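Propose amino acids for all 126 sites.
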């Protein structure tokens, strides 16, 4: 049986690429590096689709800008810290029920296409 989130509508942002200061090593603190972000936003899209009204949905262009700005606003030592801030921002600022984010550093390990973290967070229920 599928969980309620598995059947929920989703807005996707795939491979959002930008540079930010991220990492523990001195060279990472001094030089912004390329990052890639995948986001899956769980949100009910029925009302927006019926009315063809973006204000009833989540604007993925706006979300993309917000997440890049958050990443670039200050240095973060850990991918884990930045990705958690991103998830909490989305849950607090947008009408989504849950979010899955994958954040990759694209040049941290030369032998890998990317290294990073993936998290899933849900809005707290009262």
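Proposal:
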């Amino acid at each position: 049986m599928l969980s309620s989130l598995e059947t929920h509508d989703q807005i996707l942002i795939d491979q959002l690429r930008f540079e930010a200061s991220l990492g523990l090593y001195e060279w990472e603190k001094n030089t912004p590096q390329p990052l890639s972000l995948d986001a899956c936003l769980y949100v009910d899209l029925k009302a927006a689709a019926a009315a063809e009204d973006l204000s009833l949905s989540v604007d993925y262009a706006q979300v993309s800008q917000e997440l890049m700005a958050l990443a670039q606003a200050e240095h973060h030592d850990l991918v884990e810290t930045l990705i958690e801030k991103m998830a909490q921002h989305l849950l607090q600022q947008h009408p989504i029920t849950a979010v899955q984010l994958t954040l990759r550093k694209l040049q941290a390990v030369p032998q890998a296409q990317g290294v990073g973290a993936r998290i899933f967070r849900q809005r707290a229920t009262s």
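Strands lie at 10-20, 33-42, 98-105, 115-122. The chain is about 30% helix and 30% strand.
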